[in-house]
Here is the input.
Amino acid sequence: MFRAFDISASALTMNKLRMDTIAQNIANAQTTRTADGQPYRRKVVVVGEKEFAKSFSQYLAESGVRFSGSGVKAVRIQPDPSPYKRVYDPGHPDADEEGYVLMPNVDTTREIVDMISATRSYEANVTAFNASKSLAMKALEIGR
Here is the structure.
């Protein structure tokens, strides 16, 4: 029963990290020069399965009940390898000899869609967490 709480909590943490990363991408959508001298490069969260030392599902498996699921974790935050955008702006301080500026590979529309997806996923996991909590409370009431 507590595994459901762990799974929902890991998903909530992951979606918060996704939303933070997306917000960072949107905030730097016009950053043409970072500390390394290059335009900002969009970041993407890579998600993987969370592993527990000995999970509740393993205890259940020993008793003959099967359950697979252990939550999610951030494997890494990696830069998006897509190319930078070239924009003609000869008055920009970072313009090259031809007047073109390398702009970040951040597409604001895509970021907003990703933010909506992360928000909906967060809300779904809050609902799942509350449902698990409600079931636990009902189980405790039955035990009285």
The first helix runs from residue 2 to 27.
